[in-house]
Amino acid sequence: MTVPCRFTLALVVSTWAGLPAALAQPDETSALDRVLVSASPAGRSLDDSFQSVTVIGREQIENWPGASLSDLLAAVAGVDVRRRGEPGVQADLGIRGTGFEQTVILLDGMPMGDPQTGHHNLNLPVPVEHIERIEVVKGPGAMAYGGNATGGVVNIVTRRDDAATLAAQARVGSHDTRSAGFSGAVAPGASHHRLSFDHLRSDGHLPERRADADLVRGLYTGGTELGRTGLRWGLGAENRDFGAWMFYTADFPDQRERTKTRTAWLAADTRAGEWSVTPQLWWREHDDWFRTLVFGTAYINRHATRINGLRLSGQRRWGGGVTAVGVSHARQRIDSNALDRHDRDETQAWIVHRQPLNERTAVEAGLAYVDYSEYGSQGLPTLALRHRLDDRWTAFASWARSTRAPSWTELFLQTSGNRGSTQLEPERSDYAEAGLRFAAGSHRINLAAFERRTDRLIDWARAPGEVAWQAGQFDGHRSRGAEIEWRWRAGRRWLERVDLAATALDTELDRRGLEIKYALDYPELGLVGAAVWRLGDALRLTTRARYSDRSTGQSGTLVDLRLGWRVSGVELFVEGNNLLDRRLVEAGFAPLPGRWLYGGLRLVR
Fold first, then answer.
1. 155, CA 20 to 30 Å: which among 71, 111, 216, 510?
2. Which superfamily does CATH assign the domain made up of 3-604 to?
3. Cα(30)–Cα(35) distance, integer angstroms
4. Does residue 36 carry a pLDDT above 70?
5. d(Cα 46, Cα 439) in Å, to the nearest integer?
6. Are strands 255-272 and 229-243 parallel, antiparallel or unpaired?
7. Distance between CA atoms of 65 and 543, rounded to whole angstroms?
8. Residues 6+ apart with CB under 8 A from 227
9. Which backbone phi and psi does 31 adopt, to 5 degrees?
10. Rounded to whole angstroms, what are the CA distances from 23 to 29, 413, 442?
11. How confident is the model at residue 547 (pLDDT cuts 50, 70, 90)?
12. CA 472 to CA 460: how far, in whole Å?
């Protein structure tokens, strides 16, 4: 047995051994499961969800190793984060076998997706210090967030403080990596404001010094109460400049990319009679500059996308149940020297009703209407059931339909290596899930089995021996899997918290003898384990391991740790990523960096 396998097995056995006795503990109220999640426009707590949901809380964000959003998401069961380059530079995100184009990213409930390509979906102006929690909803979220949420929804919820706080952090690490950031909050009167900023620079891990990175992020969020109306707003910006050595092609590896992201939003929470009403406005712009050197000649692509959107949603309780309705409209535009100029509109309307049938059983049904200006409209129904078996165990089941319009890259890109197709039409997926959820005392367990079938699946393919990838559509898609997730707030003298999860997947596709780029490259088995150890009153050690066995033959274990000593608002810490120094390719052709070490100082007042 290899060292990575022994490490993972030891972590599983040592923590699972304490489960039977721990489950006998009396039930306690836990703040972990009282938060509202983004699984439904009808609103509910994590305990009442009709599907699988994972929440990364502020405690985990502060204690887990990794300084980026992609590092945090990589520790969630069923989430496939495929990273390139220096930690945090670029990553693709999929959930339970779906691709990066099939997952919706929200920032305080505002859509942050990019219609040019899903490669940019995680280009977000959000310093980690500004995040309160991350809600990961597994399965379609078409009701209020658009048909693209085939795989699920990731909602990043920013912090709201009722008192003045200040935090600052600096770190240095391998390959001349250095970063610094601050975050401050004030709460005068009925308002609250937070401003965060961070900056990272690195010379990169390759001797060619073409894997360097320079990332700058800033975010301001605020809100106020005006009588019965609460206002919320945000304004953020991010710049990235990095060497993209072998990110997208191995034939011409010398690539470089610069991106700029700007976003702003305004939302209100008010009442109109018996209805709770939430109007929202958002705006996002993204500029992408990409250069490839081909035999000494620079080929440059420039893309500028702009999105303006508005949403109006309402919710009312009546007859023991909850009804939610809403409409939204988004205008998308691109100006590109490679993809030309295009614009399109996406309009949605939805109605959802959740109704208790008795004290233990509840049902939720909904219908969404999605209209694409280029492709017409589709109806997307959902149906879900939840039944409490006893005070601890809950059974749940759901079925939903979703759709996805092709990105502009899939439609219009024409290069020597990738050729889009203007003949593409929206794909359509049916997703079903059934599971059990356990909640008692300091324990949360989620067991689920799921299946997704997709008609006209959009992907890239090529015949054996060919170099260029051609965008096309494929039938016969079916993806099945099972997942188990256990979270234990141990509260022991030596052990604070344990998170363990396993996901198994199997996907079939009528590939017509072609090589498929994304749909058939998935983790057949994924294991995630993390534990926070108490080594003293002020010393915490976090260990985390992630094992992935991909369908393409790539497999390996990544081990990270964080050791922090915290006294009176001052913390000294050391972190290590990929401590086993594994050479893995998660995306594209660029191997992940090897062992990466950091040391730093964090001040909180």
1. 216
2. TonB-dependent receptor, beta-barrel domain (2.40.170.20)
3. 10
4. no
5. 10
6. antiparallel
7. 8
8. none
9. -65, -20
10. 15, 54, 9
11. very high
12. 6
